[in-house]
Design brief:
Elements: H1 2-17, H2 25-52, H3 62-118
Protein name: Heat shock factor binding protein 1
GO biological process, one term: cellular heat acclimation
Family: Belongs to the HSBP1 family.
Length: 127
C-alpha cells in the first residue's frame, strides 16, 4: 500500500510539472472565431455608442447638447429618487424592528422583576 501511495504521488508530481496539452486544431479555430466575433461585437457597440453620444460629433448645436445634458440630469435624478426611496424604506423597516426589540426587552425585564418579587426569600435557620 505504501508503494501505491508513492507511485500515485509521483504521478501527481509529474502531472503538476508537465505543461498543459496544446489545443487541438479544431479548438484553436473555435477560439479564434470567438475572438473575431467578440471583436466585431465590441466594434459595433463602440459605433452605436458613438452615434448615441452627441459629444463625439463635432457638428452639434448648443441646443442639442443642452437637451442631451438635461436628459442625462433627468435620468440621474430619477435614479437618485429611486435609491432614496429604497433607503428610506429600509430605514423605516429597521426602526420598526428596533422598536419591537425594545418592547420585547422591556417585557422580559418586567417579567423578571415580577418573578423576583413573587418568590419569597429563602428561610434562614435560627439557632
Amino acid at each position: 500500500m505504501a508503494t501505491e501511495n508513492a507511485s500515485s504521488s509521483a504521478v501527481g508530481a509529474d502531472a503538476l510539472q508537465s505543461p498543459p496539452a496544446p489545443l487541438q486544431p479544431q479548438a484553436q479555430a473555435q477560439t479564434h472565431s470567438l475572438d473575431i466575433q467578440g471583436k466585431s461585437q465590441q466594434q459595433q457597440q463602440q459605433q452605436q455608442q458613438a452615434q448615441d453620444d452627441p459629444s463625439s460629433n463635432q457638428n452639434i448645436s448648443p441646443q442639442e447638447l443642452t437637451l442631451y445634458v438635461e436628459k442625462l440630469l433627468e435620468q440621474i435624478n430619477a435614479k437618485f429618487d429611486g435609491v432614496s426611496t429604497q433607503i428610506f424604506g429600509k430605514m423605516d423597516e429597521m426602526s420598526s424592528r428596533i422598536e419591537e426589540l425594545e418592547k420585547s426587552i422591556g417585557e422580559l425585564v418586567q417579567s423578571a422583576d415580577d418573578d423576583t418579587k413573587a418568590t419569597p426569600p429563602p428561610a434562614t435557620k435560627s439557632s
